[in-house]
Amino acid sequence: MTSLMGQQLDALLFNESNDVANLSNAAALLMQSWDKISWAGFYLYNDSNDELVLGPFQGKVACMHIKNGSGVCGTALQTGQVQRIANVHDFPGHIACDSESNAEIVVPLITATGQKIGVLDIDSTNYDRFSAKDEQELKEFATVLMAHLDVAS
Description:
Blueprint: H1 4-13, H2 19-33, E1 39-46, E2 51-59, E3 65-67, H3 71-79, E4 83-85, E5 103-110, E6 116-124, H4 132-148
Antiparallel strand pairs: 1-2, 1-6, 2-3, 4-5, 5-6
Helix pairs in contact: 1-2, 1-4
């Protein structure tokens, strides 16, 4: 069963084929729907440089380039695993784009065939902000989003 936010995203992106518009509205939906978050957005994978590049987001200015395997976002992309970090200051190699960020969750966006699209990144000024339930909801959110992006599957 799809969560309410997943259903909202699916309806919001219905019949829209522009990836920038879809990612922008997805970031806005997250920012409006969740409390205690300070940043929500996307980093998109550039395979020619093997790095993530800042995509549509809501929040403070952000780092623009993150090497694959660096920081929480790069680790999520490299491992293909969600990174749910209760205290980013304890994460080896954390990249502090916003010094007020204390917790982070990053969901890799990878197609069924292994094509790296990027990551969904959410930050909070609250420590231990993200729960296992949040992680499941965001994984579902990412699945709904990927169905609306113009990517090879």
